[in-house]
Design a protein that fits this description.
single chain; alpha/beta
Length: about 425
């Protein structure tokens, strides 16, 4: 049994919100006979007092409901730390954290469980896999903002760029949520981080530092076609995209820190197939990056391709759009949808890039680009969060359309040909 009881008989836990994370926590608390109640923020209309308030990740600490609640506000991550004695690897960052977490799990095999922001809750993992040696936890800023004493054995930070300011209230608060956990760590712990992150240069950091970067001053870097660690060659990455290489570096930074068979881990990493909707190659011309939720992630992806037709849009989170000038030069057409389509239109219009606005992102996949002429970066939720990736991403709704960039709404055939020529 790897979990310990930490509460006394007078303790009362409130699960605020009942989404995936708190449903998992309720399962765990039931399994150890701890007392708790479940409430939604809208149910609380008068002052209430609890020992711990476990908030669902999507509830902001700035929510007015906390003015009516007395008690220590924590996340499922903090509660996990209160009970668990498992070796804990936490992965966070604006982009790449899901892929890095999955790579680490792949390398550790059956000795590890992967949970957290990836969609399988920490609480569920505490019930289903309590005897696993390693807990690999993908942690969002929503989870990290509400920790107090939580201390992982290894913390991996892939990168930091502007994101989630609608939830945190400011970029400063978002950055602080990512770095807060470092205050709880000491020299027995390890911090694996992208050396290029400017926000940590002036931080006082106590854990062991394992840096990775394309910059050769990092402990883990790329030289030629190989990843090196302290001048030791680890693996060949010839032909892999730069952001894939960085993700591999971050995951290898974990393996070199623990007593694990490095050769076995690398062999498994070489077989890793990648996560769906994250720079996923649907075919030679279609790249599905539907899980991208901010400009930095999209910018990184687009650096790898030429002659780009970009689909992007969704809910407006208030994050400014910014793409590198060399990336903008490669974009031939943009298809914007959702609440942010006018914002996207204005950004690209000022840069002399043609934009088509529409309501349904699936409709653009109805006509593929003419083979040999273009790459379509299907970044369904670029710049903004959006609905889950549509199930129609590889189907053709209007097979009679010409095989080049489709405007929306569907015009007459003469207009189709005219626009197609302008976008190629």
């Amino acid at each position: 049994m790897l979990f310990r009881s930490v509460l006394n008989g007078d303790t009362m836990i409130l699960l605020l919100g009942y989404g995936v994370s708190n449903r998992g926590i309720s399962r765990f608390l039931d399994s150890i006979n701890e007392r708790y109640i479940i409430r939604n923020p809208s149910d609380i209309v008068s002052p209430e007092k609890y020992t711990y308030i476990v908030k669902s990740p999507g509830i902001s600490l700035n929510d007015p409901v906390f003015e009516l609640l007395e008690g220590k506000v924590i996340s499922d991550l903090e509660l996990y730390g209160m009970y668990s004695k498992n070796y804990t690897i936490v992965v966070s960052g604006t982009n790449g954290k899901t892929t890095i977490s999955a790579m680490i799990k792949e390398m550790l095999g059956e000795e590890a469980v992967l949970c957290g922001n990836i969609g399988y809750s920490i609480g569920d993992a505490m019930v289903d896999y309590k005897n696993k040696k390693y807990f690999v936890i993908e942690a969002s800023s929503f989870m990290l903002e509400a920790i107090d004493k939580f201390r992982p054995d290894i913390y991996v930070l892939s990168n930091i760029s502007i994101a989630h300011t609608d939830h945190h209230g400011s970029l400063k608060n978002y950055i602080n949520s990512k770095l807060k956990v470092l205050d709880n760590m000491d020299s027995n712990d390890s911090f694996v981080y992208l050396k290029d992150i400017k926000y940590i240069k002036n931080c006082s950091i106590k854990p062991r530092l394992i840096s990775f970067s394309m910059n050769r001053t990092a402990l883990i870097t790329k030289i030629g076609d190989y990843i090196y660690y302290k001048n030791k060659r680890l693996m060949n990455v010839r032909g892999r995209r730069d952001y894939d290489v960085l993700n591999m570096m971050a995951s290898l930074g974990v393996i070199v820190n623990i007593n694990y068979d490095l050769k076995k881990a690398i062999k498994r990493l070489k077989k890793y197939k990648g996560m769906p909707f994250r720079g996923e190659m649907e075919n030679k011309y279609i790249i599905n990056d539907a899980k991208s939720t901010n400009p930095d992630a999209t910018n990184t992806l687009l650096k790898e391709y030429n002659h780009i037709h970009l689909i992007c849009g969704g809910y407006d989170r208030g994050i400014p759009i910014f793409l590198d000038s060399d990336v903008l030069k490669k974009i031939k057409c943009v298809y914007a949808y959702g609440d942010s389509k006018d914002i996207i239109n204005n950004y690209f219009y000022k840069r002399n890039i043609r934009v088509f606005k529409f309501d349904n992102p699936a409709t653009t996949k109805s006509s593929w680009l003419r083979p040999g002429t273009s790459t379509l970066a299907s970044s369904i939720s670029s710049f903004r969060s959006c609905l889950p990736p549509p199930s129609t991403t590889t189907t053709t709704s209007w097979p009679s359309w010409p095989r080049w960039c489709p405007p929306s709404p569907p015009p007459g055939r003469s207009e189709e040909r005219r626009v197609g020529k302008e976008c190629r």
